[in-house]
């Protein structure tokens, strides 16, 4: 592979003004290194660069630092003035219908760039993974990396798209410093996937106005290149990192079929979830692996045949909350504008987190003409049916199927099942399955084949601990590490609390070999790295086994407690049911009266019920 070595490419310092493009070669960061500026300049004549004095048509450039500061200050001011945040409950406005269509850009989970064999390692030092083609060196040619197609196809299949047997690549021209060739390679005329859909359910959290479910059409999914990363500096200069240029993206375009802000946010989250379930994309939205552009229009209700209103496009939203808040703000702005007798201009707008208003970035008239043309250097993409069939058969279960399994087969509550699937981009649910597998192996060894307990009896316990007890570890103030997040790998391994160790703890808890209190202490010790040896060794070493009271000792304790609480006992006896409050009051008394660490609350409760039942009998 022809690659520009770091010491040749160096790191560029480019002034924020295009007229200063000529200083591309002036590498202040590594002044002793050889420079590639003149060569690049020859590859992209200044003429084309100077032609682009307009704002970046992609508008993916992070705002310069002073501008960002100004937006931050504005947002702070708005908060100070006690202005309410966008009202989360304002899902509808009387007399108006909102319409939203979404474009999502997601980085594919591949090791190579789309048209060069350079690696896609984002965290390596800047400009260390740059092939000649990535920076449009003269004579360099695109080399389609077939492996990039696999995650793209998995993504499209997870969105229920029809895979096109023949698709083609086009050039979308614009001139900006993050795009060395002067055009982005994309699929404009013939994308590789079309006609998909996603279904959003009430349990996904859609707006209540949408009822039980909404189906949103996916118009198309296309393959395209990412641009270079721009790093704004405090002195109003920009640094460029070409590691990202040419990294494969998919653009997912929905039909304009969403009518409530929260449902739009849920759609973005669901697409993100689907992509991560089939392992198609690098990371979640919050980590920058997925960016959403949101198209918003409004029209008056009453005439279903009226055309949709003029859309504005809010670029580059990077959190789910931003999607909902920005839509509410933009919808309200458009309604205000129309009610005041104005018209909606077709334009591109921006949104700052914490702000109340979207802001105009540029008008449609400022949009460049992209002069799309088929890329003459790239052959059509032919996708064989066999490949598609194979990928479809081996595709991971959709989150909906997964959710149903967690609820109906494993007996988790819908809320817990949803959290499990959403946490750490699906890593937590993988962790749950790993703990479950270890646990089942231990149970199988411990009991006879015909005595295997019902899966629901232990899966709920494992679910509860993998969601709530693990969650509590990072929020409790248990020591110097008390606030450190748990580290999960995408495969579902947890560094601090290994699945096999948690399974050991839960196995002994389930079998009543240890108490809940001891189990909590063990898991905390694991998290803090204070457990010497494994879980089992620790239980043995400190003799933490649960030494339950004998039946006689339990009976004596029940006698003692009911004697002292005769009034509560009589109330229970004369009641037809077992009021839980009263029962638990007596259990509490038993725990306090006896040796707490030797009492199982469930046994105590059962014995109390038996006693009451006996007294009720005629
Ligand atoms: N009247 C409308 N109101 C709301 N959304 C709309 C409306 N008309 C179209 N849309 C949505 O706008 C989006 C258009 O995306 P598309 O990529 O096709 O074009 P684009 O935004 O012009 O291109 P680019 O990728 O350059 O931004 C789609 O998600 C579509 O559903
Ligand atoms: Mg688009
Ligand atoms: Mg768009």
Automatic annotation (TrEMBL):
GO terms for cellular component: glutamyl-tRNA(Gln) amidotransferase complex; mitochondrion. Residues 49-68 are annotated as: Disordered. It comes from the Eukaryota. GO terms for biological process: glutaminyl-tRNAGln biosynthesis via transamidation; mitochondrial translation. SUPFAM superfamilies: Glutamine synthetase/guanido kinase. Keywords: ATP-binding, Ligase, Mitochondrion, Nucleotide-binding, Protein biosynthesis, Transferase. Pfam families: GatB_N, GatB_Yqey. Belongs to the GatB/GatE family. GatB subfamily. This is Glutamyl-tRNA(Gln) amidotransferase subunit B, mitochondrial. The lineage of its organism: Eukaryota, Fungi, Dikarya, Ascomycota, Pezizomycotina.
């Amino acid at each position: 592979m022809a690659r520009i070595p770091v010491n040749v490419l160096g790191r560029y310092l480019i002034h924020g003004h295009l007229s200063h493009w000529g200083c591309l070669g002036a590498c202040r960061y590594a002044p002793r290194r050889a420079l590639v500026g003149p060569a690049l300049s020859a590859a992209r004549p200044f003429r084309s660069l100077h032609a682009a004095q307009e704002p970046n048509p992609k508008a993916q450039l992070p705002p310069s630092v002073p501008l960002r500061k100004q937006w931050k200050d504005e947002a702070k001011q708005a908060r100070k003035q006690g202005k309410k945040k966008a009202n989360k409950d304002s899902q509808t406005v009387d007399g108006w219908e909102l319409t939203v269509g979404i474009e999502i850009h997601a980085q594919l989970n591949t090791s190579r760039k789309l048209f060069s064999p350079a690696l896609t390692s984002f965290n390596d030092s800047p400009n260390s993974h740059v092939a000649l083609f990535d920076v449009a060196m003269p004579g360099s040619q695109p080399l389609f990396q077939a492996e990039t197609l696999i995650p793209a196809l998995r993504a499209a299949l997870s969105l229920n798209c029809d895979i096109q047997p023949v698709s083609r690549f086009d050039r979308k021209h614009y001139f900006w410093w993050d795009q060395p060739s002067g055009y982005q390679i994309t699929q404009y005329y013939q994308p590789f996937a079309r006609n998909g859909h996603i279904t959003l359910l009430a349990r996904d959290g859609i707006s209540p106005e949408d009822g039980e479910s909404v189906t949103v059409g996916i118009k198309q999914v296309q393959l395209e290149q990412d641009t270079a990363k721009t790093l704004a500096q405090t002195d109003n200069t920009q640094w460029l990192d070409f590691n990202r240029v040419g990294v494969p993206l998919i653009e997912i375009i929905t039909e304009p079929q969403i009518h409530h802000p929260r449902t739009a946010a849920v759609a973005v989250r669901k697409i993100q979830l689907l992509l991560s379930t089939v392992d198609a994309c690098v990371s979640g939205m919050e980590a920058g692996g997925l960016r959403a552009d949101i198209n918003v229009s409004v029209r008056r209700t009453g005439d279903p045949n009226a055309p949709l209103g003029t859309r504005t496009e809010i670029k580059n939203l990077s959190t789910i909350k931003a999607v909902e808040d920005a839509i509410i703000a933009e919808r309200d702005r458009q309604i205000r504008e129309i009610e005041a007798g104005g018209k909606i201009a077709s334009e591109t707008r921006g949104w700052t987190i914490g702000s109340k208003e979207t802001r105009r970035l540029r008008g449609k008239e400022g949009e460049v003409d992209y002069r799309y043309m088929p890329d003459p250097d790239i052959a059509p993409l032919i996708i064989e049916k066999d490949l598609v069939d194979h990928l479809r058969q081996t595709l991971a279960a959709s989150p909906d199927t997964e959710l149903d399994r967690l609820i109906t087969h494993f007996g988790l509550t819908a809320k817990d099942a949803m959290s499990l699937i959403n946490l750490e981009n699906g890593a937590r649910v993988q962790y749950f399955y790993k703990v479950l597998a270890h646990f089942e192996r231990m149970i199988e060894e411990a009991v006879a084949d015909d005595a295997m307990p019902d899966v629901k009896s232990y899966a709920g316990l494992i679910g509860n601990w993998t969601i709530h007890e693990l969650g509590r570890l990072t929020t409790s103030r248990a020591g110097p590490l008390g606030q450190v997040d748990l580290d999960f790998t995408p495969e579902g391994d947890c560094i601090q609390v290994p699945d096999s160790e948690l399974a050991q703890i839960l196995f002994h808890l389930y079998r009543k070999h240890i108490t809940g209190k001891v189990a909590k202490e063990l898991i905390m010790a694991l998290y803090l790295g204070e457990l010497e040896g494994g879980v089992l060794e620790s239980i043995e070493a400190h003799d933490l086994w649960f030494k339950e009271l004998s039946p006689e000792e339990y009976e004596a304790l029940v006698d003692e407690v009911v004697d002292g609480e005769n009034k509560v006992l009589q109330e229970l006896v004369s009641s037809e049911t077992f009021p839980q409050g009263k029962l638990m009051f007596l259990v509490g008394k038993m725990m306090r009266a006896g040796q707490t660490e030797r009492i199982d609350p469930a046994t105590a409760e059962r014995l109390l019920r038996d006693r009451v039942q006996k007294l009720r009998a005629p």
